Amino acid sequence: MVLEFFRGGSEGTLQQVAVDVQEMLSECRHTFDLANAALFGGSAAAVHDEVKETDRGVNKRERAVRKALVVHVSVHGTRTDLPMVLGTMSIVKDAERIGDYAKNIWDLADAGVDFSEAPDLDRLAHYRDRTSRLVSSSARVFSDRDAEAAHGLIGEADEWQSEYDDFVGEQLTSEGPARDAVSRALYARYLKRITAHAINVLTLLVMPVHRLDYYDEDRADR
Q1: b/e map of 148-166 (b: 16 or more CB within 10 Å)?
Q2: Helix 178-203 to helix 121-144 angle, to the nearest 10 degrees?
Q3: What is the DSSP letter of 209?
Q4: Contacts of 188 (CB under 8 A, 6+ apart)
Q5: How far apart are CA 54 and CA 27, in angstroms?
Q6: Stretch 156-164: mean pLDDT, rounded?
Q7: Three-state DSSP class for residue 40
């Protein structure tokens, strides 16, 4: 259904919407990687301009997608697959939020947080790398309309959210410096939110519109 929807529309309008969503995710991944490069021993100032410019590009694409969908509905009326239009409206906000949380990670670096010599560097880097891969894979899977791959990514990434909660809990009982505990708790929170928003994007490929944002809730509240 998703593939047929994006094949519809005159003059490639909906195909362009699909491309824009994919590009939003790719740009958010770039912002994420820039922010983490600063956090893990780089310079926040050195990537500031590129982080901001990339984020402006994501916001511009979000507005373009929303406008294209409104125009499509206006032109095609009841012949339009309205649930899919509404679903796409929803997931472009999820894509945009990934970029916002990536900027929050840059804010940590800008505040002087540096994980490059952290005693738990391997663990932090593991969280960083798998999140970066998730955003990249989400862009690819969305572009390919690969429902089977989407199911696999959703199931895997959903497990990570509990890990981040546990990591935050560890910081609450840490006897180390408050600065270290706070920075780690915030980092885990941002990674969890990025993960949830990436999953939400993928749900468009596998779930009806009324169940979008399902993975944005904690498991106990679903």
Answers
A1: ebbeebbeebeebbeebee
A2: 20
A3: G
A4: 127, 164, 167, 168, 171
A5: 6
A6: 95
A7: coil
- The 3-class SS string of 130-154 reads HHHHHHHHHHHHHHHCCHHHHHHHH
HSE (side-chain half, CA atoms, 13 Å) at 48: 9
Q: Are 88 and 65 in contact (CB under 8 A)?
A: yes
Three-class DSSP category at 176: coil
Per-residue pLDDT tens over the stretch 174-194? 999 999 999 999 999 999 999
DSSP-derived secondary structure letter, 213: T
Q: What is the pLDDT of residues 86-133, one digit of tens each?
A: 888 889 999 999 999 999 999 999 999 999 999 999 999 999 999 999
Specify the pTM. Answer: 0.88
DSSP string covering 12-34, please? GHHHHHHHHHHHHHHHHHHHHHH
